[in-house]
Amino acid sequence: MNEDIVVSSEWLAAHRDEVCVVDVRDAWEFDGIGHVPGAVNIPFDRFRSEAGDEGMLPGAEHWTALMTEAGLGTDDRLVAYDDEHGVFAARFVVTALLYGHRKCHLLDGDFSAWNREYETTTDATEVSPSSYEVREPDSSPLVDFEAVQAALDTEAVIVDTREEWEYAEGHLPGAVQLDWRELVDEESRGLKPRAELESLLADRGITPDRRIVLYCNTARRISHTYVVLNQLGYEQVDFYEGSLTEWTQRGGPLEGSEVE
To answer: Does this UniProt record's set of keywords contain Ion transport (predicted)?
Structure first.
């Protein structure tokens, strides 16, 4: 659990000299539109696994090479952002945590929120390669196909973080639907106020006293929801990385209009 996993633009502005900022947008956006001064660019598609294993972790060796190339150290405090309400940056944060990086945060409100209040630059960031080491995390939220299958027969809350139409076409038996974007305020681009989040989640039965199992299609959208639940202090949150991609490949049961 990491209840300060989400940080504000104001926090980043005050601590920029103490953190390493990671921009996960495409290189053309980083170079052409601008970025947080001093940020390094690690585009989203570079820390995803190869085609055929879509959405899964990139592998410890590849992750080490990426972080080393970006000049990031094992003990650096990282703050990641994108320009898509944080969903891509959240996947970076979760990946870093799963490879044992202990100090990693999501910028609330993404690049647009930063850009409204603070300076940006198109200047290239000077990077000196680092010596990065992957570590075992203190604990891991990852669960596999068999664990999710077993969870269907328990009191666990299975949460589908995809859009309503996707859920309607086919979802895990008994899953509740929570589009990850429901947690985001469209105007501020950041998270909704805490009380509003807690009420929204409670209405779906997604409460801190229950075991929560998250899935989507390829582990991107659940990354954002996972980060939010951590910020709210949830302690029993499982992350089904294989998600619906693996579930359907392995013949897991589904409910919905396309399977009736």
So the answer is: no
Give the tens place of pLDDT for each residue, 45-88.
Answer: 899 876 556 568 999 999 999 999 999 999 999 999 999 999 99
Name the one residue in this structure whose structure tokens are 């998250």. 214
> Where a domain ends, among 74, 98, 117?
117
Q: How far apart are the first and last CA of the chain?
A: 39
128: three-class secondary structure by DSSP: coil
pTM over the 0.90 mark: yes
Token pair for 216: 């989507």
Neighbours of 140 (CB within 10 A): 12
Neighbours of 142 (CB within 10 A): 16
Return the H-helix or E-strand segment holding 247: helix 243-249
- Could you tell me the residue range of the domain that residue 96 belongs to? 6-117
CA separation for the pair 119, 138 (Å, rounded): 36
Residue environment code for 7-36, b if the CB has 16+ CB neighbours within 10 A, otherwise e: bebebbeeebeebbbbbbbbeebbeeebbb
Q: How deeply is 181 buried, as exposed, middle or buried, from its count of CB atoms within 10 A (0-12, 13-18, 19+)? A: middle
So what's the pLDDT on residue 38? 97
d(CA 147, CA 10): 40
Q: Do residue 67 and residue 150 come from a single domain? A: no
